[in-house]
């Protein structure tokens, strides 16, 4: 029996089908002999054959039988091995929390019975989890520890697994030369062992290292040679990986047709077998291949698919990290001397303390906003659900708070000041409520508060007014004295709703009523026939002030410089509307443009902006010939039959050459009526003006819109530079947009450049021009004129870097 099991074990990873046949015979024989230990071992190895063929549910079923047999045999070593294999299956199915629990049980059992082989196996799998979660440096440390244990135990298979995992870790931390050196030294050892699965995995991860070190030709030859072995082993995920790396190498070699064939085969393989990590890799390489061939629509579509899958995998990785609690196993690794009972006891105490701290830290991160330390949206909704389900006789309140004119702080002082202001406001909100109440940040400048156990419904409104008074206190933020106000909506349960969605909706509606009523106010939900609020007087007052503003000359333009990415020379300005309100001060467009569009006042205001911007640009031509001026056009303006005449009149009155005027239309506005938009744009270009598509990438329009519309420039929205959960994916996305635009003979301007790293990235990717706070803030005309310099000295001012 022992000889049969020893014969079958190496076949598990080299020839799973042959191993399965041998192990089924071993199981039958052990059962007939009443040898529970041998039966458990046979079932454990049999489960592994299904695992290596990606048949995880079957593997779990067989391992469950193995666990029962090991329990009957009362053999802790076999039980530890079964638990380890159960963990492998759970992790493969995405159940990382369950997998880590199995590994922990296996590790503890192996240590208790002095099973160093079992301890090595469990620690190795912990390292693999760290690797999958992107904790590459930590994984490297674990695998180095495991290799030392395997060498001490002189376990050839464990040494081989640990060495291969080290190669994989070296690749992920960018140590490609180390990976190639270690892999080349270990390959003869793997072949001598005859473990074909190990050879497939080792050689597969040497392929991207060859590509990264400029050896694409060697990588292509190695991949072609390796594919038959991977197919013979029947590891479908690694077949997909090898084809993906093969396609990447062929792309670099310029063999694009062959590359596409391999990548499409890899994609089909990955999708058929649910290997989503492989699928993500393939989609990225396919996008790069289509871009290299000038197939821009296919490149964009592949990139969109990559982005969607990457977002899904990123969200799952975050969930896995919350399950796994990586620090939990770091403590276990420190327990090296299992034979010293006193030290083990001390280390167990330390482990429990560290585990508790790690659990508390992870729990905090999962339920709190990273910026302010307040509860996050998910935690608030969970607590609100508990309050609803408790069905307490005492009412409770929900407050929805939106800060007034917060965007103005971001636009004028920068996002760093805005973030610090949000932290300060969070402190004011905490101080205004009881310790048992819950304050949360829902995102942006929106906050919610759960007021528990009110004496009467009116108490909620009283607290809201208390909060307004707290917000009215001046705050010193980054050297600026700031005073914020808020609009607060109030809903009280059970009167205004008996479920989470209704209460949040009604508090939100009440907040909007407060906002429309002039801001800095409190409104309690009042149901109507359709739960919609009538237009409050504040809206009419703003509209009245807007009409007078045009007559009184209260509108002004600020100008933000646009710079050549390569030379850093000033190339033009974007004209940005501001309202110098007689009582509220300088207002950004977000405070009034919505009302202007609703009342159609945007038409005379927009015409004034065109005339003013063209006149200023014409005056600057003597000092900066060729300087352009960009003017934003609303959808309502653009769709007016007389808009073409409005543009002509502005050009004629100012004397500005048409080619120096750039009209900016948002992607969303352009997509409303594509055919009519294309006709109107063609007429405008007939005048000689340039057309820019603004906020590109933020809408839902198809790529065909770019082919359909006669435009000259593409403006990449600031969100692509500033929101990067995956920096490398973001870089690829921006690069494809730039390449796509250049392929269509369009120039590209990037908005929202706030760091030198962002500027350097745009230079690397070949972007044409840029604007943002790093270069210059929007300035009044007199101050903007100071930026006009001779070409040799027209780089952005150093004081703003």
Automatic annotation (TrEMBL):
Domain GGDEF: 394-527
Keywords: Coiled coil, TPR repeat
InterPro entries: Biofilm_reg_signaling, EAL_dom, EAL_sf, GGDEF_dom, Nucleotide_cyclase, Rev_trsase/Diguanyl_cyclase, TPR-like_helical_dom_sf, TPR_rpt
UniProt cross-references to SMART domains, sorted A to Z: EAL, GGDEF, TPR
TPR repeats: 80-113, 120-153
Keyword Kinase belongs to the record: no
Domain EAL: 539-792
Pfam families: EAL (PF00563), GGDEF (PF00990), TPR_12 (PF13424)
Signal peptide from the UniProt entry: none
Coiled coil: 324-351
Xref: Gene3D superfamilies: 3.30.70.270, EAL domain, Tetratricopeptide repeat domain
Name of the molecule in the record: EAL domain-containing protein
Originating species: Deinococcus arboris
């Amino acid at each position: 029996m022992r000889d049969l099991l020893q014969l079958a074990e190496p076949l598990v990873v080299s020839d799973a089908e042959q191993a399965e046949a041998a192990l089924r015979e071993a199981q039958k024989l052990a059962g007939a002999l009443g040898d529970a230990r041998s039966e458990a071992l046979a079932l454990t190895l049999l489960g592994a054959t299904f695992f290596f063929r990606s048949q995880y549910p079957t593997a779990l079923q067989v391992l469950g039988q193995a666990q029962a047999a090991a329990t009957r045999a009362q053999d802790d070593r076999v039980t530890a091995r079964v638990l380890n294999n159960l963990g492998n299956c759970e992790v493969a199915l995405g159940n990382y929390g369950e997998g880590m629990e199995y590994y922990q049980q296996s590790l503890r059992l192996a240590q208790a019975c002095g099973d160093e082989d079992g301890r090595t196996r469990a620690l190795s799998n912990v390292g693999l989890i760290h690797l999958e979660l992107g904790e590459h440096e930590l994984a490297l440390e674990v695998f180095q520890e495991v290799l030392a244990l395997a060498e001490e135990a002189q376990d050839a298979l464990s040494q081989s697994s640990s060495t291969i995992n080290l190669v994989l870790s070296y690749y992920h931390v960018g140590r490609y030369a180390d990976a190639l050196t270690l892999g080349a030294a270990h390959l003869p050892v793997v072949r001598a062992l005859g473990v074909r699965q190990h050879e497939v995995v080792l050689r597969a991860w040497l392929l991207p290292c060859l590509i990264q070190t400029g050896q694409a030709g060697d990588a292509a030859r190695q991949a072609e040679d390796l594919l038959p072995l991977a197919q013979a082993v029947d590891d479908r995920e690694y077949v997909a990986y090898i084809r993906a790396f093969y396609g990447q190498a062929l792309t670099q070699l310029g063999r694009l047709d062959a590359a596409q064939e391999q990548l499409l085969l890899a994609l089909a393989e990955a999708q058929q077998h649910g290997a989503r990590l492989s699928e993500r890799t393939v989609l990225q390489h396919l996008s790069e291949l289509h871009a290299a061939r000038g197939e821009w629509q296919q490149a964009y579509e592949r990139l969109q698919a990559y982005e969607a899958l990457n977002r899904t995998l990123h969200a799952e990785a975050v969930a896995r990290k919350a399950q796994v609690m990586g620090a939990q196993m770091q403590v276990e690794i420190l327990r090296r001397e299992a034979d010293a009972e006193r030290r083990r006891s001390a280390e167990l105490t330390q482990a429990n303390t560290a585990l508790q701290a790690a659990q508390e830290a992870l729990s905090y991160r999962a339920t709190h906003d990273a910026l302010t330390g307040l509860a996050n949206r998910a935690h608030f909704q969970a607590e609100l659900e508990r309050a609803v389900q408790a069905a307490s006789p005492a009412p409770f309140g929900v407050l929805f708070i939106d800060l007034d004119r917060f965007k103005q702080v971001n636009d004028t002082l920068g996002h760093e000041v805005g973030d610090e202001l949000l932290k300060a406001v969070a402190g004011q909100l905490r101080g205004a409520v009881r310790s048992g109440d819950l304050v949360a940040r829902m995102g942006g400048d929106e906050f919610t508060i759960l007021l528990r156990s009110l004496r009467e419904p009116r108490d909620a409104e009283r607290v809201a007014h208390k909060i307004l008074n707290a917000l009215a206190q001046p705050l010193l933020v980054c050297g600026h004295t700031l005073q914020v106000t808020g609009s607060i909506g109030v809903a009280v349960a059970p009167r205004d709703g008996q479920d989470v969605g209704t209460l949040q909706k009604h508090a939100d509606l009440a907040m909007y009523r407060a906002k429309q009523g002039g801001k800095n106010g409190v409104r309690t939900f009042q149901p109507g026939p359709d739960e919609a609020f009538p237009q409050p007087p504040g809206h009419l007052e703003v509209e009245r002030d807007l009409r007078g503003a045009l007559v009184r000359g209260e509108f002004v333009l600020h100008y933000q410089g646009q710079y050549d990415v390569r030379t850093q020379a000033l190339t033009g300005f974007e004209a940005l509307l501001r309202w110098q309100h007689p009582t509220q001060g300088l207002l950004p467009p977000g405070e009034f443009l919505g009302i202007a569009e609703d009342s159609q006042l945007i038409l005379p205001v927009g015409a004034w902006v065109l005339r003013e911007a063209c006149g200023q640009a014409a005056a600057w031509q003597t000092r900066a010939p060729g300087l352009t001026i960009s003017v934003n056009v609303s959808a309502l303006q653009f769709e007016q039959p007389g808009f073409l005449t409005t543009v002509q009149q502005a050009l004629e009155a100012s004397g500005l050459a048409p080619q120096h005027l750039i009209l900016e239309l948002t992607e969303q506005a352009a997509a409303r009526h594509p055919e009519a938009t294309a006709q109107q744009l063609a007429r405008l270009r007939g005048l000689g003006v340039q057309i820019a598509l603004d906020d590109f990438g933020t809408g839902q329009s198809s790529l065909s819109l770019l082919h359909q519309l006669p435009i000259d420039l593409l403006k990449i929205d600031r969100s692509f530079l500033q929101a990067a959960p995956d920096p490398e994916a973001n870089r690829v996305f921006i690069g494809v947009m730039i390449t796509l635009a250049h392929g269509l003979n369009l120039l590209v301007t990037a908005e929202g450049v706030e760091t030198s790293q962002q500027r350097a990235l745009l230079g690397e990717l070949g972007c044409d021009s840029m604007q943002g706070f790093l270069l210059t803030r929007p300035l009044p005309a007199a101050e903007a004129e100071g930026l006009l310099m001779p070409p040799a000295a027209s780089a952005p001012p150093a004081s703003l870097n």
